[in-house]
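Regression report. Comparing outputs from two consecutive submissions.

Submission 1:
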Amino acid sequence: MAYIVSVETANPPYCIDPQATIDFIEQLFGVHHDDISRLLKVVQNGEILNRHISAPIEWFQYDRSFQEKNDRYIEVAVELGIQAIRKCVDSIPKASLEHDAAFTFENIDAIFFVSSTGIATPTIDARIMNRLSFAANIKRIPIWGLGCAGGVAGISRAYEYCKAYPVANVLVLCIELCSLTFQRNDFSKSNLIGTSLFADGAACALIAGEQSVLLAEHKLVVPKQFSDKSNKRQYLEIVNVSSTFMKDSEDVMGWELKDNGLNVLFSKDIPTVIRNWLGPNIEKFLYNNMLSFNDITYFIAHPGGKKVLQAYRDSLNLQEHMTELSRSVLQDYGNMSSPTVLFVLERHMKTSTPSAGDKGLMLALGPGFSSEVLLFAY
């Protein structure tokens, strides 16, 4: 057993609106596509209102080497990671431990770092540890290459870690700087769609094992012990997790690593794949937990795009309101890959008013092709 105690997020300071995106795409792609007007309508219909990127938009109008983009990835990722971690740890009440001691970085036992949009060895979490006062013997578990599925996968692996070490407090840090993978001289429709969809962000979640000092003596009250309905701090019990892999599907989504860096691989058939494949997998997962779709109150899904959200509803027979939080995050931030589902989770934890016994699913899909699913309860 483990609990999601806190989720906090961070974004780089450069924000672009739909008109800036359209102007940028028309300038770079217009002479290479006779149907640019139709393609720009696809961008407009994506309903993304704002996105954050890791450099001023003018920075992307010039050729950048793989090294230059990756150097910026390291610089920005470290700063965003520090922001997200500080917000997550600072959100814990100061009287969380025995003798009213404050919860600090030294109380963290392990950190799972999730990313797929840059390369660093030592990894970003190690560089952050040189800036924050983590204990020297903290466990570091970097996870690379899961793309959009990485957020749910990271929390799932932290849950499994807490099952093995029930006293543990674990951070899951997801950072993706998708804008830095932009290829200025790639005029494919996949790159055009990616340019209109992907964005940058970071998210940090704190997972506590059932014997964590955070939960001891009710210093942090877990959901089933809520008595004061005005208490907005809600802690989610992770009930079970599941990973499912689709064979021979490497060409559905991912990166192609070339001399100029990471090049997006993005199949137009993703919504169709979701409709045909996802439903039976989720149904089996719920059945194995003695549940059905009728038992699920909340659906925390990675919003891969407008069509992906519709494919979720079609495949799982969901009412539209079940994907409303995911849709609102997509509108406000775009698709940030792995952190995006944690942005949805943060919004859920800060705005929902659950009842004891309510259950929910977290879901994200990623390269492989694969799904990561997490069942939670209040």
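Submission 2:
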Amino acid sequence: MVLHSTQDFESSQMTAPARELARRQSGKDEIVLLWHPEDDRVEVSVRDVTSDATFHIEIAPGNALDAFTHPYAYA
């Protein structure tokens, strides 16, 4: 698990654009499923909207929807 600030997340998006596949809100968490086409990676990003703390989890493509639904099980 890697903790990032929102600024780090935005900076990484500027250098390596990702495609947003899905987004949802669950309580205080915003969960985003991202695909990086340049190297065919999938990741789930979780942001606590109250503290702005963010973490990203790289996921095997076959586990993407499960990780999107249950990100803390993969953290």
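Expected: both submissions complete independently.
Actual: both completed, but the second showed a warning that disappeared on reload.
Relevant detail on submission 2: Helices lie at 6-15, 64-69, 71-74.
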